[in-house]
Amino acid sequence: MFQWFEERIQNIEALENQLRKVHTSIELLVAYRRDLAAATGNFSKSAAILSNAEEHTGLARALAQLSDVEDKVSLSTVLYALSLFQTVLTFSQSIVS
Fold it and tell me: What's the pLDDT score for residue 96?
């Protein structure tokens, strides 16, 4: 009988370690997404500045459109990272409870 409890305790401890690793990995993913969003936002601003300085109208228009697209990608990346972080918090709270 004691062995059964011992096995369950070991299983629970192994599961806890695995969940901690998953939690750490997801936190890193959120941080990477946040950094990617910041870099994409910086690229978007740079493309906008370059489009304003470009003399060729076709190229200036293309750069402006690229800037708009990158700005939207940056925003969606931030929203995705926030959503993922919220999921992690909810998941963590449900494990603790």
Answer: 64
Asked if residue 4 is part of any domain, the answer here is no
* C-alpha span between 57 and 48 (Å, rounded): 13
Residue 11: inside a domain: no
Residue 46 tokens read as 């740079």
Q: Note whether residue 83 is domain-resident.
A: yes
3-state secondary structure the chain: CHHHHHHHHHHHHHHHHHHHHHHHHHHHHHHHHHHHHHHHHHHHHHHHHHHHHCCCHHHHHHHHHHHHHHHHHHHHHHHHHHHHHHHHHHHHHHHHC
Q: Quick one: which of 69, 67, 38, 70 has its CA closest to 54? A: 67
pTM above 0.70, yes or no: no
